[in-house]
Amino acid sequence: MNKTIVIVGGGPAGLEAAAALGSSPHHVLILEKEHNTGGKLKNWHHLFPNFADASEILKSLEKSLPLNNSEIKYDCDVFKMEQMDGNLLVSLKSGEKIKADAVLLATGFDLFDAYKKEEYGHGIYKNVITSSELEGMFVNNSFPDQLKDGLPKKIAMVHCVGSRDKKAGNMHCSKLCCITGVKQAIELRKYLSKSSVYNFYMDLRMYGQHFEELYQEAQEDYGVNFIRGRVSEIAEISDGKLQVKAEDTLSGRPMKMIFDLVVLLIGMTPATSAASIAQSLALPKSGSGFLAPVHQHISANETCIPGLFLAGTCREPLSLQESITDARAAALKIIEWLKLKDNH
Amino acid sequence: MSEWGFTVIQTNQSDMDQMDRGLIAKIGNAEPSIFWCIGCGSCSATCTAAQFNNFSPRRIIQAIRSGQVKDIMGEVNKCLLCGKCQLVCPRHVNTRNILLNVKQIMGQDAI
Question: Is B89 on the interface with A (CB under 8 A)?
């Protein structure tokens, strides 16, 4: 019997899951909260570690969406779900209710609000920007004029902003900011060839395929400087220039340095859009607030609610590649679950 | 007998088996957050005293944890006890209380 699968979120994980479910006879309904699909991938120019064109990847994800059995609804705010006779009743803010045989949460993540780290001055000093804002400047080619006067510039990249930080309430490592910082440092060196770039880090976690190689390339081919020390505070001096303080822990001395631009590498935090859904189902969360699966190792896509599945960064920080693989795994689990449901 | 002039050179290695665990045992008890430090250096970066002398809260915590406490009182006395180190610490280490405990414990030991 044909069933309805609701996917909450039309980002990379939601799109890939829908594509993977295309071969099933079931009806797939994607509920997207924005006007278009693609999620955070829309704001990426080039992806680490190979500088792949993000818009090409998004296009291919959207193209693989099966037309015969899938449907996308835009501007949908899902705020509540209830269990009802073995199904899930999905409530939208518009008042509409949808009965689903299975639901996949692919609600993604929120970016850490850098203003919470007030000592770094985001939202106070105009030349303190986030990594996401820098990526947007590459997408729209919208660099501020003062960077484009052809004079040498000094740029600081601050790692671990809002990650691994008890004060910010985030003990987790967002794990992708390290490589993003290296990628963007290289791009800045390419774009502003007279610039010098300094990355301030606590540890550099180059966990993925070709991440370490890119880190070495940044040092050897692009002369990016790496300073092992967490930035304690940033203050604007004159002409919008910024004084950054850190300890160069390898030389053991406190240091200060003046920069033209400071880029804060903000991490991933649990999506607020998933919070009310999780609450309505009493869905457990992990220590950092991401949605918790039944078992991190062997059932990472299943939840304690029958028929409710997780894919992508709603359950932990993941790269695009990992999110896509995760979405396929979740799709397979959904097909298995619906077969079981039919047999009962 | 010929004199060859050979001497035994003092090693610069820390012998971690022989380390002085007295102070870290006491401080770890009184202020367990000393074990949370990840050595990022934000305390030393913001430290007012460190701008003028070679004081470093990060190095003191590391020294206590590795038992290198011989000259610790001289170092600790450079602290102004302003507490800025605590404000910037991403791990919530109560650095000021660690230093106060060093003073207290080492002071008692001196008596």
Answer: yes
Peptide bond into A306 cis (omega under 30): no
How close does chain A come to B83, measured CA to CA in Å? 13
Rounded CA gap, A188 and A135, in Å? Answer: 11
Nearest to A63 by CA among A15, A5, A11, A133: A15
Domains and CATH numbers, chain B: 20-110 (1.10.1060.10)
B51 touching chain A per CB within 8 A = yes
Identify the pLDDT of residue B109: 62
Fold of A114-268: FAD/NAD(P)-binding domain (3.50.50)
Which chain A residue has the Cα nearest residue B50?
A254
Quick one: fold of A4-108+271-343? FAD/NAD(P)-binding domain (3.50.50)
- Backbone angle region of A134, left / alpha / beta, with phi > 0 → left and psi within -120 to 50 → alpha: alpha
Q: Do the beta carbons of residue A209 and residue A319 sit within 8 Å?
A: no
What is the phi-psi region of residue B107: left when phi exceeds 0, alpha when psi lies from -120 to 50, beta otherwise?
A: alpha
- pLDDT attached to residue B14: 81
Q: What is the Cα–Cα distance from A122 to A235, expressed in whole angstroms? A: 11
**Residue A67 pLDDT > 90, yes or no?**
no
| Mutation to test the B interface, candidates A164, A230, A255, most B Cβ within 10 Å | A230
Task: Please check whether residue B41 touches A, CB under 8 A.
Answer: yes
Å from B9 to nearest chain A CA? 26
Specify the range with the lowest mean pLDDT, choosing from A12-26, A108-122, A271-285, B4-18: B4-18
Task: Look at residue A9 in the predicted model and tell me its pLDDT.
Answer: 97
Whether residues A230 and B41 touch (CB distance < 8 A) is answered with: yes
A114-268: same fold as A4-108+271-343?
yes
Q: Do A231 and B45 touch (CB under 8 A)?
A: yes
Which sequence spans correspond to the domains of chain A? 4-108+271-343, 114-268
Nearest residue on chain A to B92, judged by CA atoms? A166
Q: What's the pLDDT tens digit per position in A149-192? A: 889 999 999 999 999 999 999 999 999 999 999 999 999 999 99
